[in-house]
Design goal:
mainly alpha; 2 domains; 4 strands; Rossmann fold
């Protein structure tokens, strides 16, 4: 739901002294450290400490959090309006690979920009990887959401911008839409009808 630019975080970490950051983390794959943090298996202090050790220069916890959050941009108004409209007719659920640092940051962005305390207000329920101990594209996380929400795979639509997540959902028979690079839900899926 939030606009994301992974390159901004990559560049911020490179600038901070972690020259091989692209090998550690990108949209298609990531190292065990990031997997563990996204599944709530390690606390933020351990995550930050590991990145400090990976840096060729001294880096503070604040600098790491700032670099990690650099990818989080904004919530377009039209996208939020679409969610409000869809909620009138459909059950909406958010399934996100995220972590406690990003959850605090994106809810802060939403509050500062739109006066909305958290993204959960737009959904019937949110499922965050760091709270479930699972992450996309693991089929177990999709199965958990289906079971918990009483959803039928054939009548469930999953929209995501990572191809490996789409493939994970398809394994359970979930209908999918892959948001390719440059696509958005407001421009390419839920378009405004012009009279």
């Amino acid at each position: 739901m939030i606009n994301i630019d992974y390159i901004l975080t990559e560049q911020a970490f490179i600038d901070a002294g972690i020259k091989n950051f692209q090998r550690l983390f990108n949209q298609l794959q990531q190292s065990t450290l990031f997997d563990q943090f996204e599944m709530g298996m390690i606390p933020r202090e351990e995550f930050i400490g590991s990145l400090q050790k990976a840096s060729s220069t001294p880096i503070t916890a604040s600098q790491i959090m700032s670099a990690w959050n650099a990818m989080l941009l904004d919530f377009p108004v039209r996208r939020l309006q679409i969610l409000q409209q869809l909620a009138l007719y459909y059950d909406l659920f958010l399934l996100s690979n995220t972590n406690e640092i990003h959850e605090e940051a994106f809810n802060g962005i939403l509050m500062r920009s739109h006066g909305i305390p958290n993204i959960g207000v737009f959904f019937d329920k949110v499922y965050y990887s760091h709270r479930l101990g699972l992450r996309k594209p693991m089929k177990e996380i999709f199965a958990r959401v289906l079971e918990d929400s009483g959803l039928e795979p054939a009548h469930t639509l999953f929209i995501d911008d990572s191809p490996q997540h789409i493939e994970g959902a398809k394994l359970l028979g979930i209908q999918t839409i892959y948001l390719e690079k440059g696509m958005t839900i407001e421009k390419d899926i839920f378009k405004t009808l012009n009279p």
